[in-house]
Amino acid sequence: MAxxxxxxxxxxxxxxxxxxxxxxxxxxxxxxxxxxxASVTMTVYRDPYRGEQAINPNWPGGYALITETRTITIxxxxxxxxxxxVSEGMYPESAIVTGLPEGVKEKNRDARLLSPAGLVDAYxxxxxxxxRTERATGVSRTQNAMITAGPGGGVILETDEGFExxxxxxxxxxxxxxxxxxxxxxKPTLSVITQSSRAVTATVTLSYxxxxxxxxxNYVLNAGDIRADHALDMNVFAWLTVxxxxxxxxxxxxxxxxxxxxxKERNADLPKGPDPFLSLQCWPMQRTDQVPFRLPYGVxxxxxxxxxxxxxxxxxxxxxxxxxxxRVREQxxxxxxxxxxxxxPVVVAQQEELGDLKLYRVPERIDVKAKxxxxxxxxxxPEAEFKLVYRVKRESLYGNGNYIAVIxxxxxxxxxxxxxxVPLPSGQxxxxxxxxxxxxxxxxxxxxxxxxxxxIEWMMPASNQVKLLHVITINxxxxxxxxxxxxxANPFDVEAEIELPENLAGLPDNVRRVDGKNIWFVTIxxxxxxxxxxxxxxxx
Length: 540
Description:
Layout: H1 2-19, H2 22-25, E1 30-34, E2 39-45, E3 62-74, E4 77-84, E5 96-98, E6 106-110, H3 116-122, E7 127-133, E8 140-149, E9 156-159, E10 162-165, E11 173-176, E12 189-196, E13 200-223, E14 231-244, E15 250-259, H4 311-332, E16 350-354, E17 357-361, E18 366-368, E19 372-392, E20 402-404, E21 407-413, E22 427-434, E23 439-447, E24 455-459, E25 466-476, E26 479-488, E27 494-500, E28 511-514, E29 517-524, E30 528-537
Parallel strand pairs: 1-4, 2-15, 13-22, 19-27
Antiparallel strand pairs: 2-3, 3-13, 4-12, 5-13, 6-12, 7-8, 7-11, 8-9, 9-10, 13-14, 14-19, 15-17, 15-18, 16-17, 19-21, 20-25, 21-24, 22-23, 25-26, 26-30, 27-29, 28-29
């Protein structure tokens, strides 16, 4: 009997062990949250496929290497460390965490963010409290409701009265949630699981690649007067423009950018949570014939009409306009002084070498705000020498009686003798000319990457002052004769270079072979014209 009782006790004891839940036997890991970095370093790379297009303001196509330093207190045992405030464009597979006592066991990228749509998605098929306020009495009524559908395409609630859509009753209403779900974070978060044999305060470094960044050079080119030899001095200034397309700001950051094209492979698609915005929809409760018809636009019934200006106001407007005309007349008689050159920038990005690439480092910490752009001075070359030449490409010479586009081109060489001698990253440029009262925009140019020693050719918009007329005078089986008339309506002489076809029947005067091309070099006097005739042979 005693043996039977002892055996029964052992069986019950073993049963109690097997019946114990696993989560009760194992200790849950401690949760450690780092809400932000102590310091940040950002290295931004250009979009390799953007070409000459401007930066996409909604979601830039470049990327950045972000390195954060954080100080955290890690307890003994297993811990889950949450790095909040990382970039939402983070590539999770690129994240590297150093400084933990025993390294990283597991990484997780939390894409579900705290938002109106995120809360609805987390509480789907769960109960919330719905509060409505009567407009007439101001009395609020709270009732329980279950979210049965959402957040996309509207939010459907089930109450004691049945099924209905959120905010479709015409009454002010709000939903109240019992608590914030643990898997929803207010900021993009990377969590790692680590182990430590003792409690320790560690300085941890988190490095990762992130999409949603880009940069380019924006040039401001102030042109001086054109001299007799068609040369001019140019104040070449460039802004380093960095774009952050994410919702996270990086304050007090060390910023640097890399010029040049890297061989970067495509990354895996980023983890995405639900859309943060609710899309609410309603439908009529009546039959179709009971729904009142209203025009989608125009003047509705009982809508007040606009209050237009009366005769007195109009008279007053006329008097003010007359006074302004008088001021304008006085200003026209004033002698304006030339606009002063732009002031020297306080902070200029410093160029460094990075293999075959160029690294530009901003010497001071700056703030890179969410959904914004930051500009820092990048290139300051106040006395660069250029030459203005009007050019026509051979491909443009076609048709009979056509006016051909003539392109003003700013030509120089990127060396110290020309007042440059610095790498010129690709970007967009705006050319300004001194128009007595101020520097006025004369045109825009596209700047491509130019190393030291390279030739520079910046093409301006086609000229309306210098025109080329292309006429076919004779067309026979052996070829055809061409007549070109180049006119200059400018009050100054211009220099032109016209590229002619290859199969010429002899070279006319002032036409030379340069780099395998037939070029007509000509200088046209102010308000003058010049003609050239040549023959194209079809037997060659």
